[in-house]
Amino acid sequence: MSETPSETPKTPEIYKCCENPQITYLAPVNINVDEKTIGTVDVWRCASCKRKFCEEKQLGIESITDTVGMPRIGDDEKWGVVVSKLQKGKDKWKLVKLKQNGIIKYETVDEKILDLKIEDYKIVDDFHTSFLVEDHLNRAVEI
Ligand SMILES: [Zn+2]
Fold it and tell me: Which residues surround ligand 1, an ion (CB under 5 A)?
C-alpha cells in the first residue's frame, strides 16, 4: 500500500455520486408547526449527475439522526418527509428515502419499528403521511 500525495483532498466516499461530483446547495424546505419553523431539510444537488442529497436539521437541536451528512440514495428512491400524527413538535417528522412502492421500515421515537406502506412515493397509513422534498423546494410545509 503506497499512498500518492495529492494537492486536493479526496472527496469522501459518501459524496462520490459520480465520476465528477460537483455538489452545490440547491434549496431548503422548511418544516413548520403552527406557522413556526421547527426544522429544515437542506437539499444539495450534484451538477454532474443531478442526484439530490438531503440533510435533516432540527432547529436548535444537535443532530443525532443517522442521516448525518449526505447519505446515498438509490436511483429508485426519492427523498421524502414522514409526518406522524401521533407525535408532536420535532418528533412529528423525519427525513426518509421513499421507494415508489413497497414497505418502509420506520423507526418511531420510542424505537419501535413500524412497517408503513408506500404507494407511488407516498406513505399510505392511518397515522402517518408523507411528502416529497423535491415538490416543496424553497417552501415551508405545515405539518
Ligand atoms: Zn454526481
Answer: 17-18, 21, 46, 48-49
CA 64 to centroid of ligand 1, rounded, Å: 26
Neighbours of 30 (CB within 10 A): 18
pTM: 0.82
Task: Give tens-digit pLDDT for 79-127.
Answer: 999 999 999 888 999 999 999 999 999 998 889 999 999 999 999 999 9
Cell digits of residue 101: 412502492
DSSP state at residue 134: G
Q: How far is the CA of 90 from the centre of ligand 1 (A)?
A: 31
Residue 122, C-beta contacts closer than 8 angstroms, at least 6 positions apart = 80, 98, 129, 130, 131, 132
Measured between alpha carbons, how far is 48 from 88 in angstroms, rounded to an integer?
39
